[in-house]
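Note to self: user wants both folds in one dump. Writing first protein now.
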Amino acid sequence: MPLPEKALIAQIRRMAKSSTRGRALGSKGPIFTGIGDDCAVLRLLPGQETLVTTDFTLEGIHFRRDWHAPESVGHRCLARGLSDIAAMGGEPVAAFLSLALPRDLPQSWVGRFARSLISLAEKFGVTLAGGDTAESPNGILADIIVVGTAPKGKSVLRSGARPGDRIFVSGELGGSAAAVLQMRIKPKKKVKPRDYPRHFFPEPRIELGRILREKGIASAMIDTSDGLSTDLAHLCEESGVGAELDAALIPRARVGKPAREVDLDLALHGGEDYELLFTARPGKRIPSQIAGLALAHIGHITRPRLILLRNLKGIAYEFEPRGWEHFRR
């Protein structure tokens, strides 16, 4: 079995930096920011940064055909990449889709998948500019590459948080994980997308990310694709800081019918909400809403490199990230 995902990425990152080509990963070369952020940042044109991200969508890992309609799979496939662009404060421009499909997959499934993906692309002014196709021996594999832009020096990185910064998150958390939990508990009962929209048709926070970048609000930012606890740990690691969260302030999603608030564990550790988690300097005024989205102040950045959670009784303790990680033992 490979190393756990975080350790595997760290190993490859060290190998890339020590190689001859890896020497270009500094600010003097065309690759301004490489492995370690939501997107790679390339400086190819004067006054502009090019953002590049790539994401897998794998049958059996990210979706199941008996749980997810092809429209949901296509939408979620592109939304993953768009959310990475949003987390950098960028504007998406183009997408490249590679598909590996089993021989017995109906063409109608492929058509519905593609129409949904292209519909979301059109909504955000993104051109599907290319890709590749291949036959898969078993299961569907979709790889999406999204390219975006930001003004030179303005991309919001994970590495900008400083002690004293406040921590904010947009929207609500745990709604996507709640849908997965429901489908696992009752696999034969159809879960309705309208009751769990954040799972089946997540909305990338492109406009919010752009405003946070334009107004200089966010000092560091990441999207909540792996879960709040894990993504905050990524941000803290890149910034060389720690954090303290207040459980009472975590915005928990209301899902299902009748609507009910998700458990705190799902809000802390559940992934695929694709909200934006960001930090802001102490003196920066932060409105309660931006682009129609509520912003919750959930904690602050600390100097010690620990992540603490102040529970509902007001007691602070160190807690481990328990969001999504491939190859976790």
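First done. Writing the second protein, which came from a different request thread.
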Amino acid sequence: MKSKLPVLTLKGSPHQMGYEHGKKARTEIEHNLKVYFQRFKSETELSHEVAVSRAAKFLEVINKVSPEYAETMKGVAAGSGQEILDITALNVRYELMYSQFSKIGLKPAPKTFGCTAFATLPTAVGNGHLIMAQNWDWIPEVKGLFLKVRNENGPDVLSFTEAGVVGGKIGLNSEGLGLLINGIVSSKDDWARLKKPFHVRCWEILRSKTLGRAARIVSQGERNCSANFILGQQKKAGRGKVIDIESAPEAVCKLGLDRGAVAHTNHFSDPKILGVKQVLDEERLSTLQRYRRIQKLLDRTVRAGEKLNLASAKNMLRDHYGKPESVCRHSNLKLPEYERYETVVSVIMDLPSRKLWAAMGSPCSTEYSPLEL
């Protein structure tokens, strides 16, 4: 079983950290750009020219709302030898793809991407630590890596990202704060809103010292596209807290925990509350099935009084009920190759210990390896 994790340790100014990211992951970044520009065209009907023109508009936005993020992207471009607008397109690929999913998502053939995430309060865990866990299901060809970032201003961060993307999407920081994410598609998703991009929000969340600050980053202002954010924080032994926030472009909704646990996949719990229509064609087979299954697994364990531990968390993420559209996701061979998605990385985070365990690829065939901030 493969176990080695790709890890970059970054420190210095934003540009220096970006440059090291770009230099050390040069081959992976070149690969990801090729994969995404092919997917933009085949899956979301975006030519390279259109994608880059939209990225140029977002670069202006990022320069204004998050100069440090913009400077880090410029460092990645310099270090990898790529054009800044191509790197920007990679960093705003969420907006470029999800707004297109919203517009073209009613095609007869369903796509099936997504993620399964859950979190459990310290009272539901054997060692009294807040646990957050997720399978991130996406394009299997995408190259991912982990970043250990030593920030000059703000908490240190350990996160998973795609090579070339500055903002980690699953991770924790030195303040005991953690982040899990789920993509959602709504009828109001639109890149042309030109608001703070998804990956910039993730980057800011992981640099937050408090859960309240992280929640405000999700909820303040409008968003280009919809997403779900599970946020948690536990600095030391004792009480921890988890917040689940569903966000649409113009509204957010906080979801409560059920007997010490919360789980989410890739659909809204109640889209009417958020003033949107659910676009489910690309997830109609997978997200509902995975949601029911992860809830059942939690019902049978922590909600029935059984204390969660690392082994039981791994078992949940390796679950194959309904395969291939299972919690442990595998390519659906009935779909065209460019529409196949599978688990790219599986992560379990222990917040107060600032430690995570990760498996690159399907966790059923890859052993988890530990990483510590």
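Dump finished. Worth passing along: The longest helix spans residues 26-44.
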